[in-house]
Amino acid sequence: MATVVKKAIVRMRQSVLQGINYHYSSPWCKVLDINAEETKMGFSRATLMLGRLYLRASFVGQNIEEALKWLIVSSKEGKTDAMCTIGDCFTYNHAGSIPQNVELARKYYAIAAALGHSKSKRRLESLRDWE
User: Fold this and answer.
1) What does the pLDDT look like over 72-91, one tens digit per residue?
2) First to last CA, the chain
3) What is the pTM of this model?
């Protein structure tokens, strides 16, 4: 099972590396009558999943740089879960390799909270205790 999942992750990564324009122009978008917003949503979910998998060392081994790269791509697509996860990385010093940076975490939480992400709102309020 782990081998199958790892192969799927590698394929997903290869697909995402092609970029969102590749997916917009794919024949399956036309055949299935998928609009650009649905493609964008799927792309941001895939990049979020990749970032979290690299962060947690799930099937692909932990790679913090790769995790942050994909989480940032997802957050640029407007995925508030990715913004919150990045904030968590800088708050909780994941794997000891990301230096704690409460100010940077606060910025990511604030953006996600402004977009209505309730978990980021709670995290932002909890950072007040850190001051």
Assistant:
1) 888 888 889 999 999 988 88
2) 46
3) 0.69
